[in-house]
Every structure is written in structure tokens, then in C-alpha cells.
Design goal:
Layout: H1 32-38, H2 56-69, E1 74-78, E2 84-86, E3 89-90, H3 97-103, E4 111-116, E5 121-127, H4 137-140, H5 145-148, H6 154-161, E6 165-167, H7 171-177, E7 182-184, H8 190-195, H9 202-214, H10 221-243, H11 245-250, H12 253-267, E8 270-271, E9 276-279, E10 300-305, E11 307-308, E12 317-322, H13 329-347, H14 357-372, H15 380-386, H16 390-393, E13 426-429, E14 432-435, E15 449-452, E16 455-459, E17 464-466, H17 475-486
Parallel strand pairs: 1-7, 5-6
Antiparallel strand pairs: 1-4, 2-3, 4-5, 8-11, 9-10, 10-12, 13-16, 14-15, 16-17
Helix pairs in contact: 10-12, 13-14
Pfam family, one: Peptidase_M24
Organism: Streptomyces viridochromogenes (strain DSM 40736 / JCM 4977 / BCRC 1201 / Tue 494)
Cofactor: Mn(2+)
């Protein structure tokens, strides 16, 4: 038997199994001499001068609020595991929002546990420690450090996140033996859920998920700063696209998608969602992410895109741009109607207003335009009551924004859609008009035109602030901006 056949990995769900060799690998095994050689001769790389992550104070306050909401209960919040893309390759990992929000950590297999104490909770972050040099995991296992990069040691993690750290490989066993009430955030770590299967209920776990979603409705100062960073990078990404529209015309919408993605990866973590680079009639498909169509002079380009920061906060901005730099008469007519609707929507965003107010304000303007153009029979009140404008407006006028592009989605309806706006909330205002290419109820000149304008709006003490105001919105300003960007 070779040494390799006796080695055990450091992954939490395979701790009793040997490290497996790739079936068609070029090396059939590891000699005793090589295995011994690989154990020694490595420098001490412990990082001893680490500073806490910038949001450490905020994550501590968030954990305190969570502790106060569920006294006396064990709370388990997993980061999640790697997901296979195909065969032995994985998707890029993104930690669960709940876990990242409470810890600042983003590594796979991590778990935050809040253990109940007489007063409050004691938090522990469970992580994979550094790869084991003794059993060869660091160079033989597919997730060993020589393959995927160095992990922080547990002591380093404690300094970074301000939370005591322990080996996650020991957690499942400890949870199986645990007593007392437990709640877990489901859907991220099947192994952890299996260890708790006889201790949790769906109803209690949903209460935990809802609380953590509602906790993100009002952003703290750190979060607002991250959202502004995301928007600022997104503005630069839109400028990048305008500069290369000639190359997109020579290729496809993919050139636009790729151009924006470069900005997102250079200045942030990733795009916050699949970029919509919809030219011509594709703009009428709300979630057009194939981005494989032609980009033609004379058509409109609907670009819906957002940069995600390294801390997972994303922008969500849409501009509808004339590919050749000038709106046609009918394009301008439709665009200006959407702009007027967005102006009404943004004006309705203020503390104390109902969440629905900005949607209602924008929809009223669009309904008025549709009646004025003879596309639907009035009066406007009838149109709105019956929702007849929705044939061409299709979607709601906005949503909460944060670590998810549709943030706080698990919040209760009474605190979200039926709630009241507060300072610190951040939402999108994004009305649109979409005239499908095969819609025989509208004049032919309308068909195939889709327009959406979307901005990220922060509710302030005195009203609101448009985080994405650096990108022009009015049709004449859009044309002038495109001229300036293209030089």
C-alpha cells in the first residue's frame, strides 16, 4: 500500500476517507520518501500583524441584535459549500448573505454558531484550518492549499473577524450531541442541516431567516459606503461600454457584457447579477442575459448592470442608450415618458412615505402616457384599477438593494412592500415601457422598442439621495454624455 492510499483529507464531510487519486492522473501513487520530504522544509507563514476587517464593529453589532432577538437558543448560520460546475470543477464560491453579513468572512464551509449563555450568546466561527502538512492534504487533496491557495489560520481568523475560531470539522459531531432549542439558516450546508435534523423545525428556522432579512432593510454607514463604491464602479463600467460601442456593433452584445465584466472584476468582486446587454428588440425581454444578439446603429441598447464590491454589496443601474448616439423621434418619445415616470417615482421616495408610493407614482405617469397615445382606453383611474398598463410596463418599479440585488427578499410583506420608508433604506426606482416586436395592438413604429431607466436611491432624513446620479438620465443629457465619453 502506498502512503497516498493512507492519507486522509481535511474536508468536513470526508474526514474518515483517504485522499483519492485522480482516476487518470499521471502519478499512480506517492512514495514514502516523497511523502516524508513534503512534510518538512516549509517556512513559518503565520500572519501576526493583521488588522480587523473594516466592518468588524458593524458585524459585532449585528450579532448582538440577533442575540437579543433569540435569547436562550443556539443559532447556526452556515456560509455554504462549493458547488460542482462539471466533473471536478466548481463554481466560484460566494458565501451566504446571512453569514457574510454577520461575520465579514467569505470562505466556503464556514459556520457561525451563537451559543446561548446566561446573558446573551457566545459566538464562534467554525472554519477549515490551514492545510495539514503531516498527512499531505495541502498538496494531494484537490482543495489543498497548493492547489487553491492559502487559507487563514484559526488564530488569524480570530484577529480578522473578532470572533473566536474553531475547526469546522468538529462541528457536525458537536451539533448532533447538542441539547436545547436550535435554529439554522437552511439551504446552504446539507451536512450541518443533517446534524440538526431532529432538533429544528421549518417554522422556527424561517423566523431566523426572516429576521436576518429584515435586519438588512436599513443600512448602516458602512453599508451605504459600500453601495456608493459599487455604484461608482458601475458608472465607470457604463463609460467603458460607451467607448467600445463600435466594437460591439462589429461583434455582438457579448462585447458589451465582457467590457462591463472587466470593470467589475478589476474594481470589485464580480458582477452583482447577470448583466443584461439587450440591443434592439431584446430590450423587451426583461431578463435578457444570453447577450448573443447583434448591436445595430439606429437601435437602442438597454444595459442593466451592477458591480459587486469585495464585501458583496451590489449596484443595480439601467440606462437605455441609442447605439449611434442619437435617439430617433419615436425612441425619444418613449424614453422621455419613462424618464418622466422615473422622476415622479424618485420624488416619492422619502422617510415616512409608503413603500408602494414610488411605484404608484411612476405607474400613473406611464398610464397617462399610454392613454394619451391612444394605446389603451381611459380614464387613467380605470387603467390603473384594472392594471391595463401592465401589458407594456410589466414589472414593479423597484426593490430593496444591498448584499443581494433583490435584497431583504424574505422579509415579511408588512415590513417590506406594505411598509414605510425609513432613512438608511436603499432601493431602486426603475420604470420601463416595453413594446414587443409582435404586439399588434400598438403602431408598427413602437414595436421592438424597450426602455428602462434605473437608479439606486438612498432614503435620507430629509428625502433621498440618488447614488447613481453621476450617470445622466434626461435624453438630451444622455446624448451629450455619450459624445463626451466617446471623445
Amino acid at each position: 500500500m502506498t502512503v497516498a492510499e493512507e492519507l486522509t483529507p481535511a474536508t468536513p464531510d470526508e474526514s474518515e476517507e483517504p485522499i483519492k487519486q485522480r482516476k487518470n492522473g499521471l502519478y499512480p501513487g506517492v512514495s514514502d520518501e516523497l511523502a516524508e520530504n513534503m512534510k518538512s522544509g516549509w517556512a513559518d507563514t503565520e500572519l501576526r500583524d493583521l488588522e480587523p476587517v473594516p466592518q468588524a464593529a458593524e458585524t459585532a453589532a449585528r450579532r448582538a441584535a440577533l442575540s437579543a432577538r433569540f435569547p436562550g437558543e443556539r443559532l447556526v448560520i452556515p456560509a455554504g459549500n462549493l458547488k460542482t460546475r462539471s466533473n471536478d470543477t466548481e463554481y466560484a464560491f460566494r458565501a451566504s448573505v446571512e453569514y457574510a453579513y454577520l461575520t465579514g468572512n467569505q470562505t466556503e464551509d464556514g459556520v457561525l454558531v451563537l451559543e446561548p449563555r446566561d446573558e446573551g450568546h457566545e459566538a464562534t466561527i467554525y472554519l477549515l484550518p490551514r492545510s495539514d502538512r503531516e498527512n499531505g492534504e495541502f498538496w494531494l487533496d484537490g482543495q489543498g492549499e497548493l492547489w487553491v491557495g492559502r487559507r487563514h489560520s484559526l488564530s488569524e481568523a480570530e484577529r480578522l473577524y473578532g470572533i473566536p475560531a474553531s475547526d469546522v470539522r468538529e462541528l457536525a459531531g458537536a451539533l448532533r450531541e447538542a441539547t436545547g432549542p436550535v435554529r439554522v439558516v437552511r439551504g446552504y450546508d446539507a451536512g450541518i442541516e443533517a446534524a440538526l435534523t431532529d432538533k429544528v423545525t421549518a417554522e422556527r428556522d424561517e423566523e431566523l431567516r426572516v429576521f436576518l432579512s429584515e435586519a438588512r432593510l436599513v443600512k448602516d454607514d458602512f453599508e451605504v459606503g459600500e453601495l456608493q463604491k459599487a455604484v461608482d464602479s458601475t458608472v465607470r463600467g457604463f463609460e467603458d461600454v460607451v467607448k467600445v460601442l463600435d466594437k460591439a456593433r462589429a461583434t455582438s452584445e457579448r462585447y458589451i457584457e465582457g467590457t462591463f465584466f472587466l470593470r467589475a472584476r478589476v474594481e470589485g468582486n464580480d458582477v452583482g447579477y447577470g448583466t443584461i446587454a439587450a440591443a434592439g428588440p431584446h430590450a423587451c425581454t426583461l431578463h435578457w442575459v444570453r447577450n448573443d444578439g447583434p448591436v445595430r446603429s439606429g437601435d437602442l441598447l438597454l444595459l442593466d448592470a451592477g458591480v459587486e464590491t469585495h464585501t458583496y454589496y451590489t449596484a443595480d443601474v439601467t440606462r437605455t442608450l441609442p447605439v449611434n448616439g442619437r435617439f430617433s423621434e419615436i425612441q425619444k418619445k418613449i424614453y422621455d415618458a419613462v424618464y418622466e415616470a422615473q422622476e415622479a417615482g424618485i420624488a416619492a421616495v422619502k422617510p415616512g412615505a409608503k413603500y408602494r408610493d414610488f411605484h404608484d407614482a411612476a405607474q400613473r405617469v406611464l398610464a397617462e402616457k399610454l392613454v394619451e397615445w391612444g394605446l389603451v382606453e381611459g380614464p387613467v383611474e380605470r387603467v390603473l384599477e384594472l392594471g391595463l398598463q401592465r401589458r407594456w410596463t410589466l414589472h414593479g418599479t423597484g426593490h430593496m438593494l444591498g448584499m443581494d440585488v433583490h435584497d431583504c427578499a424574505a422579509a415579511r410583506t408588512e415590513t417590506y412592500v406594505d411598509g414605510v420608508l425609513e432613512p438608511g433604506m436603499c432601493l431602486t426606482v426603475e420604470p420601463g415601457l416595453y413594446f414587443q416586436a409582435d404586439d399588434l395592438t400598438v403602431p408598427e413604429e413602437y414595436r421592438g422598442i424597450g426602455v428602462r431607466i434605473e437608479d439606486d436611491i438612498l432614503v435620507t432624513e430629509s428625502g433621498n439621495r440618488n447614488l447613481s446620479a453621476a450617470l445622466p438620465r434626461r435624453s438630451d443629457e444622455v446624448e451629450a454624455w455619450m459624445d463626451a465619453v466617446k471623445g
